[in-house]
Specification:
Length: 238
Amino acid sequence: MASTTKGHEQVPPGEPMTIGQHMLDKGAQMMQSLKPIKQMNQHVCTFAMYSHDMSRQIETHHYVTRVNQDFLQCAVYDSDESNGRLIGVEYILSDRIFESLPQEEQKLWHSHAHEIKSGLWVNPRVPEMVIRPELENLTKTYGKFWCTWQTDRGDKLPIGPPSLMMSPQPVDLGIVKIGLVKKRDDKYNLSTDTMKTVRTDLSEPTRLNPMADYWVKHGKGFAIDVDDVEMKKIAPFP
């Protein structure tokens, strides 16, 4: 089956949905609770970079569920349109919880302080004064973002192992391309530079953990490979 194109966006190969499928989906939606999805109460637009190739930068759309004051979980899409593709998942921890992780685990996480204070992290169409208390919390958090579908390289399906993503940082490799930011700002009629100015007094962690944003100090990213391993088998029943 050939893939189809909507605008400049490639959609997965497959036949169009039938009327029967639409009716089934609508009926299921009316009868099922879909409780986990209904807990998503924030939309965040920001940018991310591949840990193994920092030159690849993407705009991301996080649909956020706050589980408690120390833990959030996000479904990540490549756009906020109805045909947006689910490209990964990000988990977000408070600095208190992050500090309790083993150092080898901390290497996989990135800080959010710069991303937020620089105005790159936005909640589209939500006034800054409304979201301000949440930003105060989020500047002191760390995230782990796995990308499972590399749509930026033209993949029509989720191919290969997941890729670890990193957050923008105030260093050469961590600066988001001007064109990407302008495109986002124009879409939502906002100014990243203005938000950066009004966010200068947002608090940050007392000490950014040196194991987070590991690539900044060590120049090394992380890539996942797939290995064949011996399968653990279930013992036969007596």
